[in-house]
Amino acid sequence: MAIIEVSGLRKEYGGRAVVDGVSFAVAEGEIFGILGPNGAGKTTTVECVEGLRTPDVGTVRVAGLDPVADHEQVTRVLGAQLQESELQAKLTVREALELYAAFYPRPADWRPLAERLGLTPKLTTRFAKLSGGQKQRLFIALALIGAPRVVVLDELTTGLDPRARRDTWSLIEEIRDSGVTVLLVTHFMEEAQRLCDRIAVIDKGRVAALDSPGGLIARSTASTVISFTPSRPLDDRELAALPGTASIETLGDRIVINGTDETVNAVISLLARHRVTARQLRVTEASLDDAFLDLTAEATADATAEVAADATAGAAPGATAGAAPDTGSAPVVSYTPADRPEERL
């Protein structure tokens, strides 16, 4: 059952579409990722889900509620850790937790929440004295303190060192395991591949693809990369005829083939047949990085083709051909909708 439903979402600033026809649904209990380059429209999309911005066109529902019209009810079921969040420098961790708990009629008990997130030893520490990872843990706690059914985490691990990032990933998995649906916005491919059940790739304000990480990787033009240096030259025509081969590149004496699992077996058979030894043979599976680059390249090509078609027809290219940068996010302490990108809540 979908707990978040977004249909035909469009948001413009100054006549330019930042989000252009985005649609997706998030099932209850999953980690749903929104992945895309900077300026793709990710943050604007989730701000519409949170009720911080009003869509120009389209509908958004969170647990059946309109985030704008039913804003107060939505804040009872949705918690958010925003892209840019700050608290007063002298506020202690305990004071922040007690303050946010006071905002809700039936808040979660902040004490076990603090223990679970490793914040108990820092309860008397002022916000300004917390490390980056500790601040992120505090913001997760504040997003969960209202006992929400859904939590939105926007660029959660930006600026964290590798160890802190992996610790935070474990926390996100624990949050999901406790029954909370997670909407995760990120541009880290490894993070999305590790955590997400499904991913919507957004590029230039549109959904370029929506699938599981494995499904997206399978779409890559180079699902498997085989590279080796042959002991003697091979016939280019035989290499090109190998099943599943997408492309072949020669780097000095080294051959790099983009193909599939079938291509790996074919390469080994070809080498054996010609009694050629493969030095430094490497077989690398494609990653979400590869799929992402392919998908965003396709979206760029589609947008370019659309502009060209409009120009050929004598029409002015539509605003949907490009996207303005994401407009940034509000501090975590505010829930007031805004409709102008220059506003900071």
Question: Please, could you describe this protein's structure?
Answer:
There is one protein chain. The chain contains 11 helices and 13 strands. The chain has 2 domains: 2-217, P-loop containing nucleotide triphosphate hydrolases (Rossmann fold, 3-Layer(aba) Sandwich), CATH 3.40.50.300; 222-285, YebC, transcriptional regulation domain (Alpha-Beta Plaits), CATH 3.30.70. By secondary structure, the chain is α/β, with parallel strands linked by helices. Strand 1 (2-13) and strand 2 (16-27) form a beta hairpin. Strands 5-6-7-3-8-9 form a 6-stranded mixed β-sheet, with helices on both faces. It has helices at residues 42-50, 71-77, 93-101, 110-116, 132-144, 162-177, 189-195, 213-218, 236-240, 261-273, 288-312; strands spanning 2-13, 16-27, 31-35, 57-62, 78-81, 150-154, 181-186, 198-203, 206-211, 224-230, 247-251, 254-259, 278-285.
Overall helicity: 25-40%
What's the CATH H-level homologous superfamily of the largest domain? P-loop containing nucleotide triphosphate hydrolases
What is the global morphology?
A: elongated
**SS strand fraction:** 25-35%
The tally of helices reads 11
Mean pLDDT over the full residue set: 84
What do we call the CATH topology of the largest domain?
Answer: Rossmann fold
CATH class of the largest domain: Alpha Beta
Q: Can you summarize this structure?
A:
With 345 residues, this protein is an alpha/beta fold. The protein has helices at residues 42-50, 71-77, 93-101, 110-116, 132-144, 162-177, 189-195, 213-218, 236-240, 261-273, 288-312; strands spanning 2-13, 16-27, 31-35, 57-62, 78-81, 150-154, 181-186, 198-203, 206-211, 224-230, 247-251, 254-259, 278-285. The protein folds into two domains: 2-217, Rossmann fold; 222-285, YebC, transcriptional regulation domain (Alpha-Beta Plaits), CATH 3.30.70.980.
